[in-house]
Amino acid sequence: MTPKQNPTYHAPTVGILGGGQLGQMLIQAGIPYGIQFHVLDPDPEASCQPICAHFQTGSFKDADTVFEFGKNLDVVTIEIEHVSVDGLKRLAQHGVKVYPQPEVVALIQDKSLQKQFYAQHGLPTSDFVLVNDQDDLLSKATFPIVYKSAKDGYDGKGVQVLKHADQLPETSVFPGLLEELVDIDKELAVIVARSSTGESTTFPMVEMVFNPAANLVEELISPPHVSQQIQELGAKLAIQLAEKLEIVGLLAVEFFLNKKSNLLINEAAPRPHNSGHHTIKANAVSQFEQHIRAILGLPLGNTKAFGHAAMLNILGEPTENGPAQYSGVNPLLGIEGAFFHLYGKKQVKPYRKMGHVTLLAHSADELQQKIIQTKNLLKAHA
Ligand code: ADP
After folding, report:
1. What is the pLDDT of residues 299-342, one digit of tens each?
2. Which residue has a Cα nearest atom 23 of ligand 1?
3. Is residue 82 lining ligand 1, measured as CB closer than 6 Å?
4. Does the CB atom of residue 154 touch ligand 1 within 6 A?
5. Ligand 1 lined by 187 (C-beta under 6 Å)
6. Rounded distance, CA 91 to CA 71, Å?
7. Residue 184 Cα: closest atom of ligand 1
8. What confidence category does residue 5 fall into, taking pLDDT thresholds of 50, 70 and 90?
């Protein structure tokens, strides 16, 4: 009989490529695990800088820099997917545990490969066709349609809704893909964690409301205003995708629910995600702690939600530039179940993500009232 495995825990050294707010919250969750965090980011004033054991200023897009940064660490992970895959591959060959795996990062970096993966594996997604250049686009497009550059898009950059042929900006980057313009009823997300042991678990589905001017998530609501059936289907699809990718770590799966109630996978991010910030306060384990557990091969935590929750991004006011200040903090914190979380960014810029507010409530109505109150109160400005 083989003895039951009960390995000794050694607090590891963990490297994070990217030093923004997602990294910052990952470090906050990892400190109780005794982890020493090393962070690589080009900005010497990145959010992680004051709170990590070792901060290196440098490019996470450069393979040599990534390799030198991570070669003596136990585990290397990411908080942004636009990193050097060659650097990650070299680290993995060198014996460093790289989670998410370099192959998964490469697939996610390319929207065309991502969509083809969904189609090949029978996962529901909107219809699409690949295009190489502008002529190819014009010959294949039936308007209205959506054009997406295959690479380097995030927060809506590189996504264009085209109503007519003459709407294509000269700045469009090719190759890319044309996607059916989905008649969106709701945008939803499910974060799934898959451990290096193969265990998978999902967080409850959330509804995302976008700021149309900034193309950023402005508001999250949990539970979403959709049926239990849709919530369960989202969880099932997220687990299927995580398992087909064999990812280790978090995978945030973004969905469109169309007006015919079809749930379609839009895209996925292999890292902690804006759609899970509320989990720090609103769920038994946060997305950040779950990522730590997953990449260290530890048992995953209970993702149960305590009740109704919302997350509001604190975005820089549209015309503000300069040293950051916040108004409305005192009355906000006077609201029961309101918490704020700043990312330590010194400068405010229009629509810059400066922090977020989490609101907890006992009912959907109470939550809605608190959302309105918070939006009227809190402003980030110079
Ligand atoms: P990014 O990776 O930059 O976040 P997304 O693919 O998520 O890009 O697109 C950004 C936003 O554009 C989505 O949240 C959605 O509102 C809109 N969008 C993207 N694809 C479509 C589509 N096929 N039909 C309708 N709207 C879309």
Report:
1. 999 999 999 999 999 999 999 999 999 999 999 999 999 999 99
2. 181
3. no
4. yes
5. yes
6. 6
7. 25
8. low
Amino acid in position 214 = A
- In this structure, which residue's CA is closest to atom 8 in ligand 1? 156
Residue from 80, 118, 159, 181 whose mutation best tests the ligand 1 pocket (most atoms within 8 A of CB): 159
List 147's β-bridge partners, or say none. Answer: 160, 178
Q: For the residues of 298-338, what is the DSSP string, one character each?
A: PPPPP--B-SEEEEEEEEBPTT--EE-EEESHHHHHTSTTE
Is 33 a pocket residue for ligand 1 (Cβ < 6 Å)? no
Q: Is 275 in the pocket of ligand 1 (CB under 6 A)?
A: no
Structural tokens at position 74: 């136990």
Please report, as a single letter, which amino acid is at residue 17: L
* Ligand 1 pocket, residue 210 CB under 6 Å: yes
Tell me how far apart the alpha carbons of residues 52 and 335 are, in angstroms, rounded to a whole number: 32
Q: Is the shortest distance between the CB of 300 and ligand 1 below 6 Å? A: no
Structure tokens of 300?
A: 């995953």
Nearest CA owner, ligand 1 atom 9: 156
CA distance 17 to 274: 17
Strand arrangement, sheet containing 13-17: 54-57, 36-41, 13-17, 75-78, 97-98
Give per-residue pLDDT as tens, 151-172.
Answer: 976 666 688 899 988 887 777 8
pLDDT tens-place string over residues 13-43: 999 999 999 999 999 999 999 999 999 999 9
Pairing outcome for strands 206-211 and 184-194: antiparallel
Residue 80 has pLDDT above 50, yes or no: yes
Buried (b) or exposed (e) across 32-63, using 16+ Cβ within 10 A?
Answer: eeebbbbbbbeeeebbbbebbeebbeebbebb
Distance 159 CA to ligand 1 centre (A): 7
Q: Which of 98-107, 167-176, 230-239 has the lowest mean pLDDT?
A: 167-176
Determine the 3-state secondary structure of 54 from DSSP: strand
CB 146 less than 6 A from any atom of ligand 1: yes
Span from the CA of 181 to the centroid of ligand 1 (angstroms): 9
3 state SS for 349-363: CCCCEEEEEEEEECC
Q: Is the pLDDT of residue 2 over 60?
A: no
Query: Quick one: pLDDT band at residue 214, thresholds 50, 70, 90?
Result: confident
